[in-house]
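Here comes my example:
=====
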Amino acid sequence: MRTKLLVTTSLTALALLFVSGCSSNQTLRTNDGKTIVTDGKPQVDDDTGLVSYKNAETGQTEQINRDQVKSMSELDN
């Protein structure tokens, strides 16, 4: 019983480690010189040309036109 609990706890901790490692902050640099820090990876909608992201400062989901984005890069957390 004790071994089963230990294995279950270890697997749960390992799964949480993998999930937390997948969502890293990124920066969006705009053509007008602004830098936006996102919480997680931005999603690009090819149909509308919009980039959706969660703003790391405000916690709100926002969108920006893809033409206004100069670059996207991952931050070292």
Observations:
- The chain is about 25% helix and 35% strand.
